[in-house]
Write a structure and sequence with these properties.
The protein is α/β, with parallel strands linked by helices. A 5-stranded parallel sheet has the order 2-1-3-4-5, sandwiched between helices. α1 packs across α6. The longest helix is centred in the last third of the chain and has 21 residues. The relative contact order is 0.20. The model has no long low-confidence stretch (mean pLDDT 98). It binds flavin mononucleotide (FMN).
């Protein structure tokens, strides 16, 4: 089994990536393969509303030339998908939103192609707005007919400068429990 994660931060290997890696270490203990794709530095265009995905129905976005179709292929091949974002102005980063809009529209055009995959949101925050970002990601999973495991708190970690989230003991514990619950759920689904 495999879990693919996308880090929508503009900052590579920052707090969001640290949180995702905490989830990964629990998944890996259970023999689940993991891969992290970091969107930092990658141009990710928003949805152009061309609706060609509904005509083509080929599991691809008609907007070529950026990373999104590679992301779709990785999502299709995975059993679980983590979408991770830092909080920017009390919401997702624009990269994360573009990824959601493009992959989500293609999924809807292709009989909800992520249906029954396991999805988890991970959010880094300095102070406020994380719940809004967390909800935005979960809206994508829910309308895609995906299954969402919970944790001991909502999946957020607190920190501003790169690495600061390492001091948020509860946030790290939340990610650890999320990884354990995600592994448990994946094993049940694939039993
Ligand atoms: C453009 C921008 C907007 C931000 N907006 C918020 C915000 O609304 N609330 C907040 O608590 N932190 C905000 N932050 C801080 C980041 O969420 C925080 O530093 C986070 O840990 C960054 O994660 P990263 O290291 O993965 O990039 C913002 C940072 C940037 C660059």
């Amino acid at each position: 089994m495999k879990v693919i994660a996308f880090n929508g931060s503009a900052r590579k290997d920052g707090n969001t990536a640290i949180l995702v890696r905490r989830v990964f270490s629990e998944l890996e203990k259970e023999g689940i393969e993991t891969e992290l794709v970091q969107l930092a530095g990658q141009p990710v265009h928003g949805c152009t509303a061309c609706a060609k995905c509904f005509k083509n129905k080929n599991h691809r976005c008609a907007v070529e030339g950026d990373i999104v179709n590679d992301c779709i292929e990785k999502m299709l091949a995975a059993d679980g998908i983590i979408l991770a974002s830092p909080t920017y102005f009390a919401d997702l980063t624009s990269e994360t939103k573009a990824l959601i809009d493009r992959t989500g529209f293609v999924a809807r055009a292709n009989d909800d192609m992520f249906k029954r995959k396991v999805g988890a949101a991970v959010v880094a925050v300095r102070r406020a707005g994380a719940m809004h970002a967390f909800d935005s990601i979960n809206h994508f999973f829910l309308i895609s007919q995906m299954i969402i495991p919970g944790s001991s708190y909502w999946n957020i970690g607190i920190g501003r400068a790169k690495g600061e989230v390492e001091h948020d003991e509860e946030g790290l514990r939340t990610m650890q429990t999320l990884g354990q619950n995600m592994a448990w759920l994946l094993k049940k689904i694939h039993a």
